[in-house]
Automatic annotation (TrEMBL):
Residues 8-166 form the 6-phosphogluconate dehydrogenase NADP-binding domain. Belongs to the HIBADH-related family. It comes from the Bacteria. Keywords: NAD, Oxidoreductase. It comes from Keguizhuia sedimenti. It is an enzyme of class 1 (oxidoreductase). GO terms for molecular function: 2-hydroxy-3-oxopropionate reductase activity. Pfam families: NAD_binding_11 (PF14833), NAD_binding_2 (PF03446). This is 2-hydroxy-3-oxopropionate reductase. Residues 169-288 form the 3-hydroxyisobutyrate dehydrogenase-like NAD-binding domain. Its EC number is 1.1.1.60. InterPro entries: 3-OH-isobutyrate_DH-rel_CS, 6-PGluconate_DH-like_C_sf, 6PGD_dom2, 6PGDH_NADP-bd, HIBADH-like_NADP-bd, HIBADH-related, NAD(P)-bd_dom_sf, Tartro_sem_red. The lineage of its organism: Bacteria, Pseudomonadati, Pseudomonadota, Betaproteobacteria, Burkholderiales. Transmembrane segments: none annotated.
Length: 299
C-alpha cells in the first residue's frame, strides 16, 4: 500500500529533535539511512534504520537527505566537510536542512548544492521536543515550489503547519523571527510570575488564572509550568537560543534595524550562561531576573 510513496531518505543528526523526526519517516514506510558523529539511537536501528559511516555514504544511498544538527558550522561540515554529504551527491538529489542556522549562510550552501545539479530546501522547525515526538512540528520552508512539493509528504510525517515562505534562506529568516517572539515571551512570563510571587501570590495559581485570558500563550502554559515546577532539564537548551538570538542581532546589525528587547533578552541569556545554565532548558531564563531580584518564582 505504502510502496508507491516510499522514498529513500537520509537523516543526519539524531539528537533531541532528529531522532524522533527520523523515527516518523521510518514509521511512514520509507527506507532510512542515518549518520551521526555519535552512535545512532537503538530505537532507530531496531526499527530498521540503516547506519552509514559518513554523510557521503548517506547521500549515495538516499534521494532526499535531511540534516538536523546544532548550528551553521555543523551544517557546513555535514555538507562540505571530509566525507560529507556533497561528496556523495549525484544530480537530482535533494538536500533539506531542518536545523536552525544563519539565513545568509543558507543562501551560500544552497548555491553550492545547486552547482552540483541538486536542489536545496531550508526547513527549520518550531514546536520543540514535544512537537518532534508528536509529529506536530511547525515547518518553515525556503526553496522552489517544485522541490518543496517533492519533499512535502516527508514534512507531513513530521509536522502539521507546513509553509513555503519564499526562496532559499526565507525559511531560516522565519525561524529567527520565531525565536525572537519565543525569547521575549519567556522573559515576559518570567517577569510576570516573579512579580506575582514576590507580591505574595501563588505563582501556580496566577499562571492558572492567566491561562484563561488575553495573556495566555503556549509559553505561559509550557514554560510557565516549568518555572513554577523548577523543571529545567532540556527541552531546548539556553545555548541554542543564544545562537538563534545571535543570528537575529547579527542580521539586525547587517540590515541596519534596531531590536532593543532582543538585545536585552540575549544579555539575560548570557547571564544564565555565566552562571552555568547553558545546558538547561530556555525556561531557566527566569533565573537571570531571579538572581537580580534575589527572589525565586518558586522553591
Ligand atoms: P542536539 O544537540 O540534541 O542534536 C544534534 C545532533 O547532531 C547530535 O546528535 C550531534 O552529535 C549531531 N551532529 C553534530 N554535528 C554533526 C555532524 N557534522 N555530522 C553528523 N552529526 C552531527 O540538538 P537538537 O536539540 O536536536 O537541535 C538540532 C537543531 O534543531 C538545532 O539547530 C536547534 O536549534 C533546532 N531546534 C531544536 C529544538 C529543541 O527543542 N531542541 C526546537 C526547534 C529547533
Amino acid at each position: 500500500m505504502q510502496e508507491k510513496n516510499m522514498a529513500k531518505v537520509g537523516f543526519i543528526g539524531l539528537g533531541i529533535m532528529g531522532a524522533p523526526m527520523a523515527g516518523h519517516i521510518l514509521a511512514g514506510g520509507n527506507e532510512l539511512y542515518v549518520y551521526d558523529i555519535k552512535p545512532a539511537p537503538a530505537a532507530l536501528t531496531d526499527a530498521g534504520a540503516k547506519v552509514c559511516a559518513s554523510g557521503a555514504e548517506v547521500a549515495k544511498n538516499a534521494d532526499i537527505i535531511i540534516t538536523m544538527v546544532p548550528d551553521t558550522p555543523h551544517v557546513e561540515s555535514a555538507l562540505f566537510g571530509e566525507n560529507g554529504i556533497a561528496a556523495g551527491l549525484s544530480k537530482g538529489k535533494i538536500v533539506v536542512d531542518m536545523s536552525s542556522i544563519s539565513p545568509m549562510a543558507t543562501k551560500e550552501f544552497a548555491k553550492k548544492i545547486n552547482a552540483l545539479g541538486c536542489e536545496y530546501i531550508d526547513a527549520p522547525v518550531s514546536g520543540g521536543e514535544v512537537g518532534a515526538k508528536a509529529a506536530t512540528l511547525t515547518i518553515m520552508c525556503g526553496g522552489s515550489e517544485e522541490t518543496f512539493n517533492k519533499v512535502k509528504p516527508l514534512f507531513e510525517l513530521m509536522g502539521k503547519n507546513i509553509t513555503l515562505v519564499g526562496g532559499n534562506g526565507d525559511g531560516q529568516t522565519t525561524k529567527v523571527a520565531n525565536q525572537i517572539i519565543v525569547a521575549l515571551n519567556i522573559q515576559a512570563v518570567s517577569e510576570a510570575l516573579l512579580f506575582a510571587s514576590k507580591a505574595g501570590a501563588d505563582p501556580a495559581k496566577v499562571r492558572q488564572a492567566l491561562m484563561g485570558g488575553f495573556a495566555n500563550s503556549r509559553i505561559l502554559e509550557v514554560h510557565g509550568e516549568r518555572m513554577v515546577k523548577r523543571t529545567f532539564n532540556p527541552g531546548f537548551r539556553i545555548e541554542l537560543h543564544q545562537k538563534d538570538l545571535n543570528l537575529a542581532l547579527q542580521g539586525a546589525k547587517a540590515m541596519g534595524v534596531s531590536l532593543p528587547n532582543t538585545a536585552t533578552t540575549q544579555e539575560l541569556m548570557n547571564a544564565c550562561a555565566a552562571n552555568g545554565m547553558s545546558g538547561l532548558d530556555h525556561s531557566a531564563l527566569c533565573q537571570a531576573i531571579e538572581l537580580m531580584s534575589n527572589h525565586k518564582i518558586a522553591q
